[in-house]
Amino acid sequence: ESFRAFQTYVKTYGEPQRLPYVSQYTPQQLYFLSYASMWCNNIRPEELRKQIEMYSTTPYKYRVNIALSNFQSFSDVFKCGPHSPMNMTDKCVFGDSN
């Protein structure tokens, strides 16, 4: 999995240099933010409804939020509290999640 590979890279080579405008985030947080930014969009409710009705793909918001809320490493990195929306209690885990 890519997050594990990223963690191995950081352990081997050290933390990557951060740009000043994102210095408040850890490298691990930036990893997840970069993943989420791939799916970032601003869609009107009527367009979202049409997308759900016409296509079999999952809307981007859910591709990010559901996947990450089921990933324990995400919850740990962002310190999501128990039962918070981004730290599901009953996680759907495929393989080793850490």
Automatic annotation (TrEMBL):
InterPro entries, alphabetically? MetalloPept_cat_dom_sf, Peptidase_M13, Peptidase_M13_C
TM region positions: none
All copies of the Peptidase M13 C-terminal domain together span 5-92
Biological process GO annotation list?
A: protein processing
Using the record, list the residue span of the signal peptide; answer none if the entry has no such feature.
none
Q: Record's Pfam families?
A: Peptidase_M13
Instruction: Specify the domain of life of the species encoding this protein.
Output: Eukaryota
Please name the GO terms that the record assigns under molecular function. metalloendopeptidase activity
Instruction: Name a GO CC annotation attached to this entry.
Output: plasma membrane
Alphabetized PANTHER family for the sequence: GH26575P-RELATED, ZINC METALLOPROTEASE FAMILY M13 NEPRILYSIN-RELATED
Protein name, as recorded:
Peptidase M13 C-terminal domain-containing protein
Q: To which species is this protein native?
A: Oppiella nova
